[in-house]
């Protein structure tokens, strides 16, 4: 039986850790919408069928996470410009009886910085450039956003150099790829450093590490860590003690959810201090 309640999903494998139901559940309650947002675990072998038919199973749309973002892109005919550039989809909905896919990770990244450091992409900072640590899926969306914002120089540093080189080839100018040990004077002028690696994440053997030392960077450097467990990673702690502007990754998670909710339920929600406090409490952090 198909439920009359509007239902959206987050699908991945595994999916039990996802905080997205908490975010969308908060907004559904806030707006008094008769809807639901559910975790839908989906194995790799079942995903293509699921994503092509979710609308016949009572869903109005949803979010797609690891490891399915690329398969979602190749399974859906209509995708927005960002998803098309990245070859990865994280949000789907129905428009004129057709499934549409978008990628909102980069939007979430930028909206978080716009909220906490409004001048993060002013002319001077665009010229000084950005240093991106890591070359995985999140780095891709972030590099794309930095290019859309107009950063004149984007250096991708990664443990496995070849993965950084692949991203440099994918994006072209103004990106360059280097190994961590080759971070030099030019990179130390960067106006922003973004950690997209899992280094510093709680519950891993890397939880007390930082991907690089911030020693020789200018004190006006913005440091953004997209890892949000813990909220203040060792890298952000070092940034704070060096007098730098430290921006955590929780806002990226919250802001990337906004466009999807609007598509499914017809209201554009806001990322508020209250919502952030709900998530912080769930993460065991003090707001
Ligand atoms: P991914 O595709 O698996 O990439 C992982 C990256 O971390 C790679 O660059 C990898 O380097 C690097 N790395 C892993 N272990 C390392 C180590 N010991 N030393 C140095 N580098 C190491 O993962 P992803 O999807 O990009 O996600 C990366 C992180 O971002 C995760 O912690 C994830 O939770 C977080 N994230 C946050 C948000 C948000 O909304 N805030 C959104 C997306 C992701 P190699 O290439 O050398 O392996």
Task: Summarize this entry quickly.
The protein is α/β, with parallel strands linked by helices. Helix content is 40%, strand content 19%.
Task: Write up this protein.
With 287 residues, the protein is an alpha/beta fold. The chain has two domains: 6-104 and 257-283, 3-Layer(aba) Sandwich (Rossmann fold); 107-251, Rossmann fold (3-Layer(aba) Sandwich). It has helices spanning 20-31, 44-53, 69-75, 81-86, 105-116, 123-128, 137-149, 161-171, 185-188, 234-241, 250-256, 258-265, 273-282, and strands at 6-12, 35-41, 59-64, 78-79, 91-95, 98-102, 130-133, 154-157, 175-178, 192-195, 222-225, 245-247. Strands 2-1-3-5-6-4 form a six-stranded mixed β-sheet. Strand 7, helix 7 and strand 8 form a beta-alpha-beta unit. Helix 5 crosses helix 7 (137-149) and helix 5 (105-116) packs across helix 11. The model has no long low-confidence stretch (mean pLDDT 96). The site of NADP nicotinamide-adenine-dinucleotide phosphate has 26 residues, from helix 5, helix 7 and helix 11.
Protein traits:
six-stranded mixed beta sheet; globular; binds NADP nicotinamide-adenine-dinucleotide phosphate; Rossmann fold; alpha/beta; 2 domains; six-stranded parallel beta sheet; 287 residues; 12 strands
């Amino acid at each position: 039986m198909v439920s009359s309640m509007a239902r959206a999903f987050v699908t991945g494998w595994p999916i039990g850790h996802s905080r997205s139901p908490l975010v969308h559940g908060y907004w559904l309650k806030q707006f008094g919408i008769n809807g639901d947002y559910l975790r839908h675990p989906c194995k790799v072998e079942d995903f293509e069928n699921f994503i092509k038919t979710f609308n016949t199973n009572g869903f109005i749309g949803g979010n797609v996470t690891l490891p399915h973002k690329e398969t979602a892109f190749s399974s859906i005919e209509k995708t927005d410009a960002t998803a098309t550039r990245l070859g990865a989809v994280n949000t789907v909905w129905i428009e004129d009886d057709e499934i549409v896919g978008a990628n909102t990770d980069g939007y979430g990244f930028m909206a978080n910085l716009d909220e906490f450091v409004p001048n993060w992409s002013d002319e001077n900072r665009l010229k000084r450039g950005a240093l991106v640590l890591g070359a995985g899926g999140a780095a891709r969306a972030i590099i794309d956003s930095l290019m859309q914002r107009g950063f004149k120089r984007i250096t991708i540093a990664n443990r496995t150099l070849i993965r950084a080189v692949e991203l440099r080839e994918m994006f072209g100018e103004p990106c360059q790829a280097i190994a961590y040990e080759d971070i030099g004077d030019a990179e130390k002028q960067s106006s922003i450093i973004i950690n997209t690696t899992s280094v510093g994440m709680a519950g891993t053997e890397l939880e007390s590490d930082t991907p690089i030392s911030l020693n020789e960077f200018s004190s006006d450097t913005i440091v953004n860590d997209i890892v949000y467990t813990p909220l203040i990673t060792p890298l952000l702690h070092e940034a704070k003690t060096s007098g730098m502007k430290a921006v955590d990754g929780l806002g990226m998670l919250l802001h990337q959810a906004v466009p999807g909710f609007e598509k499914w339920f017809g209201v554009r929600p806001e990322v508020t201090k209250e919502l952030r406090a709900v998530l912080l409490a769930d993460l065991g952090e003090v707001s």
